Amino acid sequence: MPDKKITPKQKVEDPVGNFASPSEVVEDKTLTTKQKHDALVEWEQDAVRLSVATEEGMSGGEPSRLDEVKDAQAKLPGKAIKRPASPAKAG
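Above: the chain's sequence. Below: its structure in C-alpha cell form.
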C-alpha cells in the first residue's frame, strides 16, 4: 500500500493525529513558523477541551498534554499569537 503524503494543512488542522508530541511540531521542517504556531494552538484547544471533559468526568482517561504544548510554543520564535477564547464550563 503506498504511503499517503500528509499535507502541511492536514498537519495544522490535526496535529494530535499527525504528530507523536507537541515538540515534533516545532521540529517539523515542512511547516512554516506560522503553521507551527497554528498547529500548536489547535493542539492547545484540544488539550483544554480534554481538561474540561476530565473535570466533568467525561474523558476516556487520556492525559492532557497542555504543559507539553506550552513548552513547545515557548520554543518557537516570534511574538505570541493571539489565541481565541478557550472553551469553559457553562455556569
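Helices lie at 8-13, 15-18, 22-27, 33-55, 66-75.
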